[in-house]
Amino acid sequence: MAATVLASERGRRCLWALQCQKWIWRQRCLKFASATERRNIGKVLIANRGEIACRVMRTARKMGVKSVAVYSDADKNSMHVAMADEAYFIGPAASQQSYLAMEKIIQVAKISTAQAIHPGYGFLSENTEFAELCKQEGIIFIGPPSSAIRDMGIKSTSKAIMSAAGVPVIEGYHGEDQSDQCLKEHARSIGYPVMIKAVRGGGGKGMRIARSEKEFLDQLESARREAKKSFNDDAVLIEKFVDNPRHVEVQVFGDQHGNAVYLFERDCSVQRRHQKIIEEAPGPGIEPEVRRKLGEAAVKAAKAVNYVGAGTVEFIMDSQHNFYFMEMNTRLQVEHPVTEMITGTDLVEWQLRVAAGEKIPLMQEEIALSGHAFEARIYAEDPNNNFMPGAGPLLHLSTPPPDSFTRIETGVRQGDEVSVHYDPMIAKLVVWAEDRQAALKKLQYSLHQYNIVGLSTNIDFLLSLSGHPQFEAGNVHTNFISQHHDELFPAKQATPNEILCQAALGLILREKMITDAFRVQSGDKFSPFASSSGRRINISYTRNLTLLDGENHVDIIIDYNHDGSYNMQKGSAQIGLPVPKYLSGASATGTQGGAIAPMTGTIEKVFVKAGDTVQAGDPLMVMIAMKMEHTIRAPKAGIIKKVNYQEGSQANRHAPLVELVDEDMESN
Q1: Could you list the active site residues?
Q2: Are residues 102 and 184 in the same domain?
Q3: Residues near 596 by Cβ (< 8 Å), separated by ≥ 6?
Q4: What are the pLDDT digits (tens) for 332-344?
Q5: How far apart (Å, rounded) are the C-alpha atoms in residues 371 and 431?
Q6: Which residues, 6+ apart, have CB-to-CB distance to 639 below 8 Å?
Q7: Could you tell me which of 78, 269, 432, 572 has the fewest CB atoms within 10 Å of its CB?
């Protein structure tokens, strides 16, 4: 009991500290209100979509600033459009023709008389040309000067600047000679494994690990290809790869008066596909002295490029807590809410005020760290299929109730569609508590309250991950998922009978809803199609319903009762058998007869032609879908019978990409 009271008292003290800190910087902000009026930011255009657009709009509304949305064909009915004070159409779903179309966005800013543009993250947020264009047009770009974006956006340049400023830098090659031979020689001298990274990279794009010289050139080509697609620049750098490193980043903030501060660190080590999945602040197990050195190094980095606004300095940290500069993200990060939760700040409000010429609301000594926060990114994806992203409608969406310590950052609602054209993130779940253990319990509790129907999501995986003993102990690193793969991806168990019956009931009730609606619309109450009692054509009082549980077909026997209730009984289960070898070449649409498209996307590269012999696992082609590169591999050994798509063509989900036959069948 005493321990409970003590913990409760600690929580009250943490809350009081956060409230005091918020009061201090709000008072400071009031002093600079006239500055905002002088710069006349009364309306801001958000050059983005989804949850970040909604996030910026909420703060703008709180500050009395009107918001302008832009939207593509795919987003005309989206949440950020509904939230905005004004919204303007800017083109087709493809981001190159809409959210990346600089001239269109500038034109909307002029038409709407917006004084400023907030780029969010991704898209144009780190585009030097766009920042310069805003300046030329007299529009305030809510971000750093274009020179800082340029210097930090080219990794080779940023490493040189950081080294000169005294910030620790990891060993690597950042030179201009981009020939295969030069890069290969530097990789050999640095020593494998090495990291190949696009010089203009970010978000895990254009990043590959080469663990041996044998695979170096393949990984180099893949990194270049993705870099060219994502950043229109295929230049790369080579760095020593640190085994089991931690990814620790520091939130920095600068103003136009030469001030710069840090708001402590975030640990973003747990990743898949080099992209973050759970972030937390502060970093677990980091001592105050290391925390101070991290923060001071990050401020040194920001001042070296005269940084203004919100930015993040990312470090690689080894097991001895030595840290090395990795890159600087010259924008607001996806995971910024965890920093806001432990510092009691609103970083978007800081962005707007600093862009208007005000000073940073708090000086370094006034920024206090209180409690612990987690952010879990909820994606439409299948963790059991290499985190393959998905798209489609959110048929049902219910979340934990938001409160002062629980934030749901989202850009979709029930009934909305996760688009195939953009990132598959559904929401960010952010929680705060007085210490890491309490915050972790709150995260797990909140994940259990999330319910999504219509798409595969990573919620169960996040629960498994956050409940892993090593994660609970704070022993996190970038190889966490691969190292603990067997525990995080246990063999699938048969679905419990009650869940199967609930699924069957859901289908029956949906059927009833449809038939009731038909009866009302048709006006023919005697039509057999207007009955949902089980006495429709070919349906008796008892019926069978077959459900698919993984690869298994499960029969549910349903009795319709006169009182409107149902009795259900699980019947036989059918287990599928492999297709006989002599028939395996007959199908061109499944893995037995070739390769199919996992989702709608563009064919980026084709490696094979008709007549080629391949082995199981050989790459057949590369597809770009949902902002990611997917390598389509041969499901078995055989001979290519036909390649159905050329480079640059669009393929729909489940379309047969390559037809494959066994060697002995081809010889016959």
Answers
A1: 331
A2: no
A3: 589, 590, 654, 655, 656, 657
A4: 999 999 999 999 9
A5: 11
A6: 611, 612, 613, 614, 660, 661, 662, 663, 666
A7: 572
